[in-house]
Amino acid sequence: MDVLIEQVLMKLREPLHDMESISQWKMQMFTFIDRIAELKVSSTNSGSSENISLDPVDWSAARHIAHEMLDASLNFIQTIRDRPIWRPVPEDVRTILEDAPVPERSRSLADVCNDILTYVLPYPRGNIHPRYWGWVKTEGTVGGVLADMITSTINPNSAGGQFYSGYYVERAVIDWMRQLFGFPRMKNAGVLTTGTSMATIMSLAAARQRAIKNVREDGLVNGPQLMAYASTEAHGCLEKALQLLGLGSKALHLISIDDDFRIKTDQLKIAIQNDRAKGLIPFCIIGNAGTVNTGAFDDLVELSTIARTENVWLHVDGAFGSSVILDPQRRHLVAGLDQADSLAFDFHKWFHCPYEAGCILVRHGLDLQSTFSMEQSILGIVRKDSINDALPFTQLTPDLSRSCRALKVWFTLQEHGTLKIGKKIADNCDQTQYFLSLLEKSKHTIDIIRPVTLNIINFRFEPVELDTTNHELIDNLNIRLANDVQFSGIAYPSTSCIRNRSYIRVCIVSHRSTHEDVDIFVETLLKLYEIRLAKSQQTN
Amino acid sequence: MDVLIEQVLMKLREPLHDMESISQWKMQMFTFIDRIAELKVSSTNSGSSENISLDPVDWSAARHIAHEMLDASLNFIQTIRDRPIWRPVPEDVRTILEDAPVPERSRSLADVCNDILTYVLPYPRGNIHPRYWGWVKTEGTVGGVLADMITSTINPNSAGGQFYSGYYVERAVIDWMRQLFGFPRMKNAGVLTTGTSMATIMSLAAARQRAIKNVREDGLVNGPQLMAYASTEAHGCLEKALQLLGLGSKALHLISIDDDFRIKTDQLKIAIQNDRAKGLIPFCIIGNAGTVNTGAFDDLVELSTIARTENVWLHVDGAFGSSVILDPQRRHLVAGLDQADSLAFDFHKWFHCPYEAGCILVRHGLDLQSTFSMEQSILGIVRKDSINDALPFTQLTPDLSRSCRALKVWFTLQEHGTLKIGKKIADNCDQTQYFLSLLEKSKHTIDIIRPVTLNIINFRFEPVELDTTNHELIDNLNIRLANDVQFSGIAYPSTSCIRNRSYIRVCIVSHRSTHEDVDIFVETLLKLYEIRLAKSQQTN
């Protein structure tokens, strides 16, 4: 104990400089005080150990620490612009985290919190920064953090039925989405998921269920070869879903695209006819509402007509793009979506909710039930609560343990409203056009993928100083440049592969992004380009 | 504005009685102040709207509110014993939550937080209470809440690779579990999931992959009829998994159990031989480490021998029961588990982490990769980061959007350590034996399912006053009694169906539970039993 008290005295004399070090200092002090308190307690208390739960022994100390952690969280968000987007995890931190021995003994709450502040929080993925424009990763909100905190407090299993508030929160969110997307209003026909990947698996499972009535009992062996159709721009999660469902990659018939990266619907029709002629059974068309590469929208009106004519399921992958329904200027892009049999999208993308929050909506009330209800399969009946069509969520999903991820979605929508969220989508699209205009103004030769419909821009430098017929050379230059920008900590693009060439890809989804961020991004990009080009010329 | 100020004045004069109403009152005051501030701002500010992110306009007010919410959260946990376990959602609250119109306009943070305190927090599922002993639902910890708060702050997509701290946190958790369960230490052979259901789907997908090498490309049509084996006590998620994977319920061969609810391994061997003789292909044996009904453990040593001999995959469903590895007295129950090809279990059960946190471990390093890696399928290669075998998690799971649920697990293990968590398991088992002893001492005729191995006890009252040969009558009596107890708000059992009879089922998993809770539970039960019995006698 004396050693500890000595350490406290030393710590008390330590100079402090900034906000970050003050929270760390406080937390270290708490750790000491916690340890001293524990020693004091253990020297006096020798009662029954059964009564030692995992709750704090000293609630008032725990409250202190919890409030410090909340401040660390809010500071982290508030000062996000003051820090680099990310920084590599140093090798010693990696070792401390990854190579730690199995923790056998208890440590104080403060001690573990201190670890979080020292080893975890300083090395984030980076996507809450306003200039993280890689892939489609958003940033969340303060409200989202509070909602998640409350969810973990109530800690419900949202697999069951109506006897708690979170059940209705999830039903409300689903109902709102049905109204937004123009789906008929009904209960038990939508549910929150980890993300679009899982919602896609569920959608295709429902489509499979409609195509093969006895698939749950009999499986696919000896069944017909089902076929799904999507454009070559479709997201990889589709193929993954078909594989998981036992349909195999070969069940995915990829259809070529037009110059605007949209599925060629005449090719689609021919493909369906040819496949039928071969004895294959078309069961699902997948339409893109915002492709991952370029943000292209398939013609969903035309796809829904084909789906109806061919009597196959229409699934729409609207992971982030379907959110344009909130933006009056761009709503027309998803015309026809209201005719889909299923829609998969994410709240943790353009709705700005924290991970994870995806969603599946099915058009017809019974499609999730008939695919996932356990009673359906075992007893031949679907259990229904008498009031209000209140089916437990276990009957609608593969998951039997579920948190209430609806609360953060409900919170975000309640706090910000669909109008403001829609406005932020328009802002991101405007920022992307501004990005485009800066690239166009540049003196360099830059190949830009067009059209730039939404919030995504793909471009590659094709320097006259290099042999631009050497595609590998130019690919490498651009991939390395993207890497340089990522490592700058100032801006963060990702890369894409379009028409067999590598591009730098920027996708603006942050509610924090501004035109000034575009200026900073492009300035950083051009500066690093010149350095990278000079290097390329040297090595050539 | 004047109306608002008038309302504030009235509110200021309101009398207050308890902690709960104080937080509500504060939050209402904040709401008023927020609205007034907004009015003040909007009357002066007419600048560019692009700069209005979804971040708080007034950070200091937002901090106030956030700290109030944290206090509400901590109060909720600290005073859990002072409230009923749950209460039904009143119809007007249900309407407010479920029938709310799509939120178009923004509301203040305080306003939405106030809704949470008024409509959400008072109507929890109930499982954080020390006498919620229905199903297997635990309660979480203060540390778990803080960890989730920090996770939502960093808001990572943990689908990717090594460039952030949370990646190593998840790798550490997986590594600790491999050590605990005696799996060979290797990277990329485990991952966190939403729960055991998803981990089961993934495990059986990996088993299917080993049985049919080209299943990802070619699917199951025209393939062999695979067969999985489990006891009749196996959890329903198994059948759901086989259905999703396209193998169908008929791929599940249920094997009968002995008097201790353990799979009859001689029957299993015969079933495998018979199925092979019919041309079916056995591909997976599922062993139970803690069945959901009675907490029975299959003989995993014997199962692993059979699996090796028959060259089929051994999957262990250890949803909650496998956690006994932490309890030296009961560790022997999972002997043989270290020979499994896959293990699925939950951290949100006996590890006391908040929902959702499940886990899959596979024995062999490549099994997840070969099942889920996208490059594997598309390019025929698996991308590998050069350092440290750091595969991105997307290559190991069906999910492409993933939160860092590892942080709460890491936090819980770091804070409490495996020894204390093991001790709490022993405590729950002791409490269950104490529960048993109280039932045995009761003057009533009670049929108790034996053995009571773990933390689960199933019992039914068989009153001499009623016709006990009328099974439906006795079933109903016990189901209604369980319902009475649930609605008392004092104790919370669930029910089970064992040997075609209805039982009341108690499963003690809370770190907060004590022997005194058992006293209160049994006392409530017996009191309500006498009332229910009197009612039954009247209606007879």
UniProtKB/TrEMBL annotation, chains A, B:
<feature type="modified residue" description="N6-(pyridoxal phosphate)lysine">
    <location>
        <position position="349"/>
    </location>
</feature>
<protein>
    <submittedName>
        <fullName>Uncharacterized protein</fullName>
    </submittedName>
</protein>
<dbReference type="GO" id="GO:0019752">
    <property type="term" value="P:carboxylic acid metabolic process"/>
</dbReference>
<keyword id="KW-0456">Lyase</keyword>
<dbReference type="GO" id="GO:0006520">
    <property type="term" value="P:amino acid metabolic process"/>
</dbReference>
<dbReference type="GO" id="GO:0016831">
    <property type="term" value="F:carboxy-lyase activity"/>
</dbReference>
<dbReference type="InterPro" id="IPR015424">
    <property type="entry name" value="PyrdxlP-dep_Trfase"/>
</dbReference>
<dbReference type="GO" id="GO:0030170">
    <property type="term" value="F:pyridoxal phosphate binding"/>
</dbReference>
<keyword id="KW-0663">Pyridoxal phosphate</keyword>
<dbReference type="InterPro" id="IPR021115">
    <property type="entry name" value="Pyridoxal-P_BS"/>
</dbReference>
<dbReference type="InterPro" id="IPR002129">
    <property type="entry name" value="PyrdxlP-dep_de-COase"/>
</dbReference>
<comment type="similarity">
    <text>Belongs to the group II decarboxylase family.</text>
</comment>
<dbReference type="Pfam" id="PF00282">
    <property type="entry name" value="Pyridoxal_deC"/>
</dbReference>
<dbReference type="InterPro" id="IPR015421">
    <property type="entry name" value="PyrdxlP-dep_Trfase_major"/>
</dbReference>
<dbReference type="InterPro" id="IPR010977">
    <property type="entry name" value="Aromatic_deC"/>
</dbReference>
<keyword id="KW-0210">Decarboxylase</keyword>
